[in-house]
Amino acid sequence: MKSGLNFLIAAKRCEIDALRQLSLTSALVNVTGRLVHGLQRERGLTNLFLGSQGTRFAEPRRQQITECQATEAELRRCFDSLDTQAAHLGHGARLFSRIAYVLHGLDALPALRERIDTQVWTARDTTEAFVRLIAGLLAVVFEAADSASDPAISRQLVALFNFMQGKEFAGQERAAGSALFASGRADSAGQQRLLHLIDSQERCLQVFKEFASDELATLWATADRDTVDARAELERLRRVLCTAADGSPLDANQSQPWFDCCSLRMDRMKTVEDRLADSLQRLCEHKTQAALTELLAFEGIHPVAVQPDDALSFFHDPVPDHVSGTSPAQAYGVQLDRSILDLVQDQARRLQAVSDELDTVRASLNERKLVERAKGLLMAHRNLSEAEAHKTLRQMAMNQNRRLIDVAEAVLSMAEVLPERRR
Amino acid sequence: MKSGLNFLIAAKRCEIDALRQLSLTSALVNVTGRLVHGLQRERGLTNLFLGSQGTRFAEPRRQQITECQATEAELRRCFDSLDTQAAHLGHGARLFSRIAYVLHGLDALPALRERIDTQVWTARDTTEAFVRLIAGLLAVVFEAADSASDPAISRQLVALFNFMQGKEFAGQERAAGSALFASGRADSAGQQRLLHLIDSQERCLQVFKEFASDELATLWATADRDTVDARAELERLRRVLCTAADGSPLDANQSQPWFDCCSLRMDRMKTVEDRLADSLQRLCEHKTQAALTELLAFEGIHPVAVQPDDALSFFHDPVPDHVSGTSPAQAYGVQLDRSILDLVQDQARRLQAVSDELDTVRASLNERKLVERAKGLLMAHRNLSEAEAHKTLRQMAMNQNRRLIDVAEAVLSMAEVLPERRR
């Protein structure tokens, strides 16, 4: 018959299993980030290629595709190595479901590239296609952040996810700005989209700053400061793009400097992202190691035979002499029942604190969840496709000059008075 | 290399694993409920036994102990059958940690009973001891409710937990009232405690009504109505107990009718609780079966070779033709890539909806979590034991005539201005 000590150990094993899964997940997040970066570059080069009617950028694009294919193969191996037979992962079903979606997107990439080779698809359509695939990849990172069972790791994943999402907004800004310059004419819809992307980007970076370690937040601030010239140029071009009167001419020659300084910014972001991913990996290993050490200490405990009087201590008030300290398990190889009870209560208290902190960290992911929920509502009630629903929300936000999350909240609070779905 | 379909299936397998664990958990909850009921009876009989200086109730108490020992053995077997090696359970660590605590309490029961046999412990101390052990058992049920991955099952578990918790408050009310009658004298502290227990009980039953199925909510309402005489008698005795002036005499002969009508109420509650537990078990089986059927349908899919044009459908808007309907997987043994993509998107959308609904259901468990957090804060900052912290909160609630949750929230919002912990 299993004892309290057995279950104390079992609980620790559960924690270790969850941490090991987090190590796997963070490796997955790392490769996903590299593929996202590759696809962002490919999207940029594809836009330039299509913008030049296929006369330029064919070679850099081809090279980028080769690189993307290598990273894609690596990511597919990563997916394969996830144990799909076992449901060890906390939110396994959701993660696997996101992966299934991404795999469909990756399967469709060769056909998309063919359409681009033959210039059958427009720059606008291909941009949308890349945006959708990258959104699918980011959703994998989001699930990882949402399912992490350790608050410190969860914080890092939230920081990383927001940084990656911010970088993707920067990538979309590059594409939107390039399209505006290439068209040679300012139009207010394009300008509004640009402003929206800049705003979304900044909010993501704000969340990143809140959740990243001081070291990494500083790294990004420094990277941003060290390239003050490039930043000034970016801001100048942003101003040119956003303040030109509707219909007034834009200098198509600015297209290249715009692309270059946007790309420089994204490359700098990638450096910080790599450091974030590294530090996440190390944190997972460190936490797993620490938990393993504690497990060994627990397993080394040989409880002395329980005396009835000792057992009764369950009904007395424990002295909380190590409420905030580290576990005393390491100190004793042999423990009285009283001390094991202390360990059990410590563990329960710590797990409760962990769960409370996780709730707080996860709340920061709510913005995205609210937007998704509002989209779902629009799809169901207005019979819209996902893309239409997203566009509707974005349009409402632009028209009302409000943030996407505010519009999403308004939509959700209107849920009860929305008309029935038309069939 | 694994395909989107593989991960669609893997996600379904995760769901099934989680549902199977829920079946195990709900069996565990069932036995836990029976042991709680047995211990509540033992607590009642022990109070009568001690109140009569050991001259009466020795035999019924002995019989009740035998029954409790049998249920305890069953629960220990249930614990043993949980796979402690694998961390399949979502919140495994927390559940195992609660079980470890309960096992310490069960180990201490024989010593407690011995102290009662020899009348070394007072009625008050033994009541507190039983209250603590039962609270540990209810915490196991709470974790089960908090970790359920299916909203319908989670709702039932929330209903069941609140019903069990309400029944425990009823049991504590019986003990508190018995103690008052036995003392032969009204005292305002005891009266306040009684009022508090009645209030807590009613709030638990309110949550139960919100979350139980109509059928079970009606079952309880009917049970309550059918025994209107007993209820009237309970209310009369409650009035006698609560309105007597501080220090005025109470008729000790009322002790037996009070005990009887409280016991009748608890037995009626047990009938409803059993039905709840049964219905939970059936729901788990039904859900598992439905998911297995869907899995079989998914596994029967033989995707036809993907044509490039079909793959491109990833980048087009899906027609949400079965957003709210059932999965069409059963309809086809062979599917085009387009249809599998639809299944993948359906799954993702459904899992998102499930997760949103779970958040809502779990929010109802927040009251308890807030109280626990406030207790933890008091323990850390004021150097209190858990029991002292709980008593402090309860006392604050009584003095300020506020609900426990309101006091807990006030304490938490004061966290930043609380003095440093004295060491």
Automatic annotation (TrEMBL), chains A, B:
What Pfam families does the record point to?
ANTAR, NIT
Single GO molecular function:
RNA binding
User: Superkingdom, according to UniProt?
Assistant: Bacteria
- ANTAR domain boundaries: 351-412
Q: What is the name of this protein?
A: ANTAR domain-containing protein
Organism this protein belongs to: Hydrogenophaga aromaticivorans
Taxonomic lineage is: Bacteria, Pseudomonadati, Pseudomonadota, Betaproteobacteria, Burkholderiales
